[in-house]
Amino acid sequence: MRNSFEILLLPGDGIGPEVVGAAREVMDAAADHFDLEMRYTERRIGGGAIREEGGPVSAETLDAASASDSVLLGAVGHPDFDNAPVRPEAGLLGLRKHLGAFANLRPVEALPALLDSSPLKREVVEGVDVLIVRELTGGAYFGEKEEGEERASDLCLYTREEIERVARVAFDAAKRRKRRVTSVDKANVMATSRLWRKVVTEVGEDYPGVELDHILVDAAAMYLVQSPKRFDVMLTENLFGDILSDEAAMLPGSMGMLPSASLGKPGSPGIFEPVHGSAPDIAGEGKANPYATILSAAMMFRHTLGRPDVAEAIEQGVSVALEAHYLTPDLGGKKTTEEVTKAVGRWVAAGEGVI
Known about the structure:
The protein is built from twelve helices and twelve strands. The chain is of the alpha/beta class. The strands form two sheets. A ten-stranded mixed beta sheet has the order 2-1-3-12-11-4-5-10-8-9, with helices on both faces. It has a two-stranded antiparallel sheet with strand order 6-7.
């Protein structure tokens, strides 16, 4: 097992620096416990990069990402750029494209300590464990665009190759879980969805031990809040996955609990980040929930650094902290970002016991 890693930190905007700092502190606690060497490089992305470097992500930052073992990102976005010709979010899209990250993994788990934080009834969310696999490089986000005062369009385009490669990620994940894939589309209306359904069905034939069903996106949105336990792995195109994963954030009670991984070809650096936004309204107030970023660091150790033992230790630290009621305001508690971070770090550094 490897013990030495090069990590690129991209704190970004708003609360990004706070939550990335929290994750780094927990990673350092893990390094002490597991005798790891963690080497960090930090660069700008998003609004800060536009202000200081003239664009949302520089060529130097992209080169640093390629040279790293993995990338940990905080958040991008700021209202100062809402009407700007170049938005901070373009930095993240450029980073994903540069690294060839085509599959976004968003686990959604209702942890026992947070069942009462969800707006849904306990019996609805208890036991929920869903993995949303979202395609990242195609669809309306990247299609040819036309924008004017009287007319605008976003071309939704998918190729067989794009669909097949992300479908295999979903089926491979399902083999390690409950062996069910639900593919989400709008095949009753959209041509891209009909191709999506056809290709996913063909890929499914290579996985005889995995059950496949197809569901329209509007029905998927309904079932996510009505009966979310029906899902194991949800496979979606880019736009649908963006919307559904934000909806799914309400199952564990807060978007501040959802990590994510953006992965490309095996061996390439992954991008790990919380699902939540930059929340500039609470930046610097100590209210930011760092759990999603800490859990994103755990995903990094599991998916690209080859250290599932470290990932498990961090995840257990989060569970122990939650059980001990280390809850930030978004979870109905009063703990600060620093208090939560130190609680998780103490457990990870010790590897056992209580906080």
